[in-house]
Specification:
- The chain is an alpha+beta fold.
- It has a single domain, classed as Nonspecific Lipid-transfer Protein, Chain A, CATH 3.30.1050.
- It is built from 7 helices and 5 strands, in the order ααββββααβααα.
- α1 crosses α2, α1 packs across α7 and α2 packs antiparallel against α5.
- It starts with a helix and ends with a helix.
- The relative contact order is 0.16.
Length: 179
């Protein structure tokens, strides 16, 4: 491989890493917003162990986010793996990109062995279901039709929450980028 090809591939990899970092930050920020506003999400996380810390990241040393369940919802703790009880890890950057930008759903990433779990499978399924709820509010309807078996039903309230997510996401990401 020539030096020019190597530099081009490195540049491409860095661009993908940057996109994954940004997508994970958007995911974390949306988790926070949706866990406070959506009755569906609140019902999903109500039975979770209080103080559960989980992370979503990329192997081997890629970007990651860490979240904690508290009484008022999910909170972003920061970048990297901060002593999580549960880790959901994409096997590589390309697999993470596919799930994070809406080429495949998170459930499909696990079904296709593009992601692994370190920790309780029961808790991993709970987090994966909550990620599906987050995708409902984060992704456009066209993408949701493609990445889910059945597009999730959207009520008027859901559209209002989706609008709040879209309008508040930039500010939430700016706040969370400092963590």
């Amino acid at each position: 491989m020539s030096t020019a090809e190597s530099a081009r591939l490195t540049g491409s990899f860095k661009a993908k890493q940057t996109l994954v970092k940004t997508s994970l930050l958007a995911l974390a920020s949306t988790f926070e917003i949706v866990s406070k506003k959506s009755p569906e999400m609140r019902a999903e996380i109500a039975e979770w162990e209080s103080g559960l810390v989980f992370s979503v990241g990329v192997l081997p040393d890629g970007p990651a986010i860490t979240m904690r369940k508290e009484t008022d919802g999910l909170h972003y703790l920061g970048k990297g793996h901060q002593a999580p009880k549960l880790k959901l890890l994409f096997k590589n950057t390309d697999s993470a990109l596919m799930a994070l930008i809406g080429m495949i759903g998170a459930h499909t990433a696990f079904a296709q062995h593009r992601a692994i779990v370190h920790g309780s499978l029961f808790e991993a399924m709970q987090v994966n279901r909550s990620m599906a709820i987050v995708q409902k509010y984060l992704m456009p309807g066209l993408i949701l039709k493609r990445i889910t078996k059945r597009p999730p039903p959207m009520s008027g309230r859901d559209y209002l929450i989706k609008a709040q997510v879209m309008t508040g996401l930039g500010l939430a990401m700016t706040k969370n980028a400092r963590k």
